[in-house]
Design a protein that fits this description.
Shape: elongated
CATH class of the largest domain: Mainly Beta
Oligomer: single chain
Strand order of the largest sheet: 17-16-15-14-20-19-18
Helix content: 10-25%
Number of strands: 27
CATH architecture of the largest domain: Roll
CATH topology of the largest domain: PH-domain like
Structural class: alpha+beta
Mean pLDDT: 82
Distance between the termini: 51 Å
Radius of gyration: 34 Å
Amino acid sequence: MQEGNEEPFNIRLHLAKDILTIQEQDVICVSGEPFYSSERTVTIRRQTIGGFGLSIKGGAEHKIPVVISKISKEQKAELSGLLFIGDGILQINGINVRSYRHEEVVQVLRNAGEEVTLTVSFLKKTPAFLKLPLCEDCICIPSDQSSGTSSPLCDSGLHLNYHPNNTDTLSCSSWPTSPGLRWEKRWVDLRLIPLLHSRLSQHIPGSDVCRKNAFQVIAVDGVCSGVIQFPSVEDCLEWLQAIASNISSLTKHNVKKINRNFPVNQQIMYMGWVDEKEQDSVQDRMYSPKFLALRGSSLFKFTAPPVTTWDWTRAEKSFTVYEIMCKILKDSDLLDKRRHCFSVQTETGEDMFFSVELECELLIWEKAFQMATFLEVERIQCKTYACIMESHLMGLTVDFSMGFVCFDAASKVVLWRYKFSQLKGSSDDGKSKIKFLFQNQESKSIEAKELEFSNLFAVLHCIHAFFAAKVACLDPVFVESQGTATNSGIPSLSNVSLK
């Protein structure tokens, strides 16, 4: 895991149903005095064979203390049970060496005599070079045989009679020599991330740059996991999907509870995080997290998940589902490096662009939007818009059963009526006018009707929604799914073009 510009360090993840636990390694006192000290003091003697039995890396030139990088089995350092790989050496025989360079610490240890007292503290965020393998070219020759220098990036072996082929398995066992005290290196909880309404992101914040083998989890209260890196893209995707699945399950359960307090026509169909693409006056493009919710007849856009009833009145924006158009963007439609994107064209003609992290999330959103639109069209049955035809104020009703009905606004007299099946084409000027081409059922001739609307895009989207709902009614699988509408298992509606 990496946080900011700090060196990455090893962590362990534990995924439960509702919590992601991030653990780090630490050395803790597991028996003895009821206190915790981050520092330990241990005295070890130099043995005839094997010396102190430890190796070190690092130093002040890397802005960290010298770190124990190897502990040989069955040597004094290992048997003490108080020294661990990853311990930073703070003092040697009372000498403060926190700010010493690597070579300076090596010299102090060489001249420490047959017995040395070390004060150490476990460095949880040890640098990456601690993981580098032992390099024989920079092993410290024992002090009585050479005065050569050592490298802070390689293991400096602090032994007598040291043999470079000694590659015994590293050990972190705890065999206490101090009465009543026992120390162990353990995984301890670093951070708990509650998963309900958490969001995942593989992207560098605000950009379209995707980290292929890393992601972060941000809790609803803003607590961030840091960038969690994996050895491979496959491992990353497996964890990403597992966490996303738990978040989805929690969301469905939460929606089910919330819906108990809402009437049938105000049920929530979808809730979830997306990233919205924004046009900025300074930067070319940037993304910001938004929370979308489909509830009843509306699509809500929030900056944070709604928790109380009052929160629903404080949405950043809301739109009527049958007066907006949703489009899943294919590869040729994508605007940048982000995948899994969709656009929403509003009733004013404004295009909003969103992205989600996984393809399955995109599918869930698409099906939920289709179902929400269908249910609302089925509920309202018709929608009327004011329009102008040949300088006269008219009304156009889009009726789920009858089709298109145009009437005089003053007298309410119906001027013409056509079924949905009679619409053979349409065109618009992108501003206010729509020309409909209807086929006369008797003469089979095409009859053109031109209307002018103040809200052109709302009308176009509404007509599309009614057409899609009409087509969906002919799909028995879709009809059967209405009674058990969820965020999955909803078949696609046909995309009827009115162009």
